[in-house]
Amino acid sequence: MEVPPEETPSTHTTRASKPFCLNNLATPIYKIITKKVTTTYQEVADIFVATLDKDTLEESKDKTLRRRVYDVINVLIAADLLEKNNKQIHLTNRTPIVKPQEVIAPPNPGREEALRKKQLELAEKIKMLIYYKYLIERNRLHMRPQVNIQFPSIVIGYRDISRGTIFRSLDGHELKIKSVAPPLFFSPIDIFRRLKISKEEFARQLRQFPMFAPYESIVMASL
Q1: What pLDDT is stored for residue 110 in this prediction?
Q2: Where are the beta strands (DSSP E) in 18-172?
Q3: How confident is the model over 48-56, as a mean pLDDT?
Q4: Domains and CATH numbers, the chain
């Protein structure tokens, strides 16, 4: 069975192992051009090659490196950082290359009204949270009665039940109500409002949630 050779650091190609890749050459070449302002391909290549160690730079590698320098210059021209005029290249003084387009939102007359509606809906949900929190804290000090209402629940009331009837099954699973007067339905928040929580106590409970601070005025105004 042939065992594959172990990987060594030399088998991985990284930017550090390729000092003459386009990414590593871009910065020093651009610095050379910024100092010269106006120059040529050959002059930039000559200056860059002159900064390298001649003993380690073979003739074949010198030609490859010069082509790399030309490639970097072409990329900078395509990126609109340089301009080319015949054989001369110079800075454009335009950075960054791509400017984000300004986005203008179309007019929306109902936007403020829709936002206000969302704020009021959020205020109602915040009130529900505060009421639940207050009710939980209050009930910790009270014994739970044998007959109570579990939330969420549907609470129905009648202004006049004298001419109607109420029937409840023995197992408590069925309730029939007959009435001439129309029923009145109450939401949990209607029940909570009967807790007689003061505005000062409500504000104290609300301020325990710093995230709701921007909506405090809206919530308190709706009490």
Answers
A1: 81
A2: 38-40, 82-85, 88-91, 155-158, 165-168
A3: 73
A4: 22-91 (1.10.10.10), 120-221 (1.20.140.80)
